[in-house]
Amino acid sequence: MSSSSDRHLLLALQIANGYGAQPGAWRMPGTDPSSYTDMDVFDRYARAAERGKIQLIFLADTPVLDVDLEREAPHHAIDPLLVLTSMARATKRIGLVATSSTTLNEPFTIARQFKALDVASHGRAGWNAVPTSHPAAAANYGIVLPSREEKYERAHEVVQIVQALWGSWGKNAWVRDVENRRFADMSQIRPVNLQGRYVASAGPLPIPPSEQGQPVIFQAGGGGNGLEMAGRYASGVYANPFTIEEGRAHREALRTAAERAGRNPDEVKLFAGFMPSVASSKRAALDRRLKLDESVDTHQRVRYLGSMIGLDLSPAQLDQPITEQQHSAARANPGDPRAPRALELAREGWTLRDVLAHGVIDYHPVVPGTASDIADHMQEWFDAGACDGFSVAIDVYADGIDTFVDEVVPVLQERGLFHEDYAGITLRDHLGAPAQYGQDPRLP
Amino acid sequence: MSSSSDRHLLLALQIANGYGAQPGAWRMPGTDPSSYTDMDVFDRYARAAERGKIQLIFLADTPVLDVDLEREAPHHAIDPLLVLTSMARATKRIGLVATSSTTLNEPFTIARQFKALDVASHGRAGWNAVPTSHPAAAANYGIVLPSREEKYERAHEVVQIVQALWGSWGKNAWVRDVENRRFADMSQIRPVNLQGRYVASAGPLPIPPSEQGQPVIFQAGGGGNGLEMAGRYASGVYANPFTIEEGRAHREALRTAAERAGRNPDEVKLFAGFMPSVASSKRAALDRRLKLDESVDTHQRVRYLGSMIGLDLSPAQLDQPITEQQHSAARANPGDPRAPRALELAREGWTLRDVLAHGVIDYHPVVPGTASDIADHMQEWFDAGACDGFSVAIDVYADGIDTFVDEVVPVLQERGLFHEDYAGITLRDHLGAPAQYGQDPRLP
């Protein structure tokens, strides 16, 4: 196989709680069950990702405890900005991106902390600007979740004020002229004085530009509101298409939204969420996932699988494939984009347990297989225009990140799909996004 | 000299903008003028302080740009929590404390970030909980500063909710039992559900206890409101007495406030702000300070000095001492606690320039001199019960921190005033504060 394009795909590595994307990751052999609070572990992952020339690390976040900790680890990091700061100190080139809610935070806090990360990392920070949709997260901040419309109105205000604060200093404002005893050129440092309906800030922010000017904006919300935000502000979008068709549709809509906002659509990259399980064979990869799923309620999953493919499945059938009669009766549920893939696997004759092990009801497309299988999937999606890159959720970080870096990345590089090394030093360099200075893009 | 007590004094090192406590620090030889954004520099300072067995590093903060950057560096760090995270990764034992406003932040944000720093540093974090009094800082958050009364009402609510969130997990809640597939004991993890007049939070916070349970509370506000807060919650207080008498009065009032709150007064330590300039002789120390002051408006300072000592002083007299006639006419302004010291120096025959170089109008007591002179000052204050330790503001960090650690600390140790090494591993260990777990101190 060879790539049909000169374009390179981009890679984001999702690193959440320190264990892995699968609920059982925290208790796998080789995983330190204390990884959740151990920055040495996060630093090791970041260095491995950088060894693989991955463009950026992404920490999704919702400020809430929303899992049953009896069996699972928390979904998110102890604090994304603190974890990224530790990673920034342990690495030199990889980008560092985290979610921070536009619903629950004040723009000055977001502006200050992400810009601080940006200068501390020498221009490698990015902010995933998303409204919060979890009522319990809002309750942690003492509020009731506003309407979707209000959340997006506030989100626009927050992003605009944050960007204005980031642009408080002109490109050459920080003169540091020891001889003439001049620390900065105050004529290039301006207040913001923006008053919105929901938020406001006077500024200026007391932080000079970084090597990339200011942090990169990412976006992850869905629907028309999310597209509009992404089109206006974002250089990267995290999306969760389950099929190539969904990916293409989302990417086209995103590019249209960027054009509508007067931007070059190539400035907005879509990262498709994707969950590889890499092993020496497809069977070994499925067994790896089965081991991870051991404490999951399989009975409930079998019934859910039945609803996806239009059959009344019983847990008693877990270790058998569907019968010939079921084969004929089965229908993919049109309301679930994952259903066709589930039906395809069931008809191929996998046991129900193995169909589930393929990840058909996971929140990202799952590919269990060899490095070459994984690369095939990525190439197919990328060549079809379903994405500009992938947001990779590794099942178990302890060994999975190294395996991805040492086995999948070289295959992608051999096929000409992925860069051999970082060409620049900033996150904007890695994404091909122009540097940004000042409050008005037309000014220096 | 020998210490009159078995007690050891405590040391906090103030590290603000990366340059030093004096406005001219950023342009001194040996200082990298880019230190403000360079975490390598902050890490080097933190390691030097740890080499000196200093109990903690303290980053004061007000989220505002309130200096003329043409001549001075910003007063505060790019972001205290991010800088402390970097320092946490570069050190093993030293405590890490920062200010975060109880007026401008939501309790969930404070609770999460300081607890994250606490677990990431293995139990070394502290939070200086203070209301904000700077109107421009409030404007950065889109609000008008509330009344003093409202600010303290909100501060009480914020501290109580933050402490409740920190106590969400019982001491042994994080079981991490791989064999039995049990990540945590949910019966030991409880919501908070606190609703105040200004702030609220549901909880729980998704972060387990650190090696010290939860972060240490510090306080720095003055007046009756500040004392009451400190008496109820704080293990350490940053104070700015200018004289031994002021220090003793503050410390006694603080101990009384702690007793009123039902606590052992020994659990609250007063750190007196203090600005040493260490050199091989007193003259050399004064010259060091003169060099730092070079770009300051000396004319204005001479007139201000005149108002402190009841004389109409002219800049023309800058390099002369006061005359005999002035000697008799001079009176210390009773409204300025620094005035008696200024008058004493003027009467000793120093030129006005040198009187000013003694730091008589600085915001902390200043001692320019040899390591032994500095230690004498500290011993005198400590033995007189004016403080439990010092919050040390070094004039120029680039060489001043090493000099303090290598020259002053050994003198204090020889005199039995300062510990030889850290006895424990957490900030609570260093302060003699008991570990704290859970929402109710009576529960495990």
UniProtKB/TrEMBL annotation, chains A, B:
Xref: SUPFAM superfamilies: Bacterial luciferase-like
Binding site for FMN: 61, 99, 152
Gene3D superfamilies: Luciferase-like domain
Species of the source: Conyzicola nivalis
Keywords assigned by UniProt, alphabetized: Flavoprotein, FMN, Monooxygenase, Oxidoreductase
Keyword Flavoprotein set for record: yes
Pfam families for this protein: Bac_luciferase
A single MF term (Gene Ontology): monooxygenase activity
All residue ranges annotated as the Luciferase-like domain in the record: 36-385
UniProt KW Flavoprotein keyword: yes
Name of the protein this chain belongs to: Nitrilotriacetate monooxygenase
Taxonomy, superkingdom: Bacteria
Similarity-based family: Belongs to the NtaA/SnaA/DszA monooxygenase family.
